[in-house]
Amino acid sequence: MRILITGATSGLGRSVAEQLSQAGETVLVHGRDPQRVAQVAGASRGYVADLASLAEVRSLAEQVRAENDRLDVLVNNAGVGFGAPGAGRQLSRDGHELRFAVNYLAPVLLTQLLLPLLRRSAPSRVVNVASLGQVPIDLGDLEMANRYDGVTAYRRSKLALVAYSFDLAEQLRGDGIAVNSLHPATFMDTGMVREAGVSPVTSVREGAAATLRLITEDVGTGHFFDGTREVPAHPQAYDPAMRRQLRETTERILSTHIPAS
Asked: What one-character-per-residue DSSP string does 105-167 give?
């Protein structure tokens, strides 16, 4: 298989990438730092992009399409966590709230731009690394301009990603592309968790095992998993009106980055 993993230079992404490489798979490694990309053991090819920039997300997709004739699995793993306790609202290079931009807009845009390659490679898969810690999205203040809190921003961005995963699974049903999302493990021992001042409670290896299962096994499509167990997402992820409004807003934001079909 040929597998692209975003955020693959540390933590969960690196563990998954290196285990797949050891198993003989072709692994395309993405990260922000060229040196760290080069250090991922067994990587077949490296890609450097800052997913806080939609232009760089688009360039990443263009490079992957230009250099690969197939893509069996896309793993949207890169993300921004809670941030340091008490940290203020941060913006992406395009002026969007940072967690909304990196955890939601970037994987949506990357997936949409790589769909032609995934279709050509079907049966193929999209695996979205989300979180069980989901809280309701305020569609009137999608990017939390008011009453900002990093933990809430993170959890809203992950709920948005799960809702998108459900939408995309329905859209692609019959195209041979399975789309699933998961909470790999709770508070894994990663830099993201430690930055937030949280004591890790699970290992990266545990989260990697759950993620590898969705990469390598046929589990159907349109599911959300807590580790290896399918569980319900937040009820808002199943609300058609909410998903439609989120989808329409997302399409407006990304309209200048996705070529007209």
From this structure: IHHHHHHHHHHHHHHHT-SEEEEEE--S------GGGTT--SS--HHHHHHHHHHHHHHHHHH
Contact 188, 12 (CB under 8 A): yes
Whether 154 is a known active-site residue: answer: yes
CA 11 to mean position of chain CA atoms: 14
- Read off the pLDDT of residues 173-189 as tens digits, 9 standing for 90 and up: 999 999 999 999 877 76
Active-site residue identified among 104, 154, 164, 238: 154
| Per-residue confidence band for 203, with pLDDT thresholds at 50, 70 and 90 | confident
Nearest residue to 239 (alpha-carbon basis) of 160, 185, 182, 173: 160
| pLDDT per residue as tens digits for the range 55-109 | 999 999 999 999 999 999 999 999 998 988 888 999 999 999 999 999 999 999 9
CA distance 14 to 29: 8
- Residue labelled with tokens 């969960």: 12
Note the pTM of the prediction, 2 decimals.
0.95
Give the Å distances, CA to CA, from 153 to 82, 105, 183, 225: 8, 13, 17, 21
Q: What is the pLDDT of residue 69?
A: 97
| Count of alpha carbons within 13 angstroms of residue 74, beta-carbon side | 30
Instruction: Give the helix ranges, DSSP H, for the chain.
Output: 11-22, 34-38, 54-67, 98-100, 106-120, 150-172, 191-195, 204-216, 240-254
Considering the domain delimited by 2-254, tell me its CATH architecture: 3-Layer(aba) Sandwich (3.40)
- What are the tokens at 203? 């290992």
Per-domain boundaries in the chain: 2-254
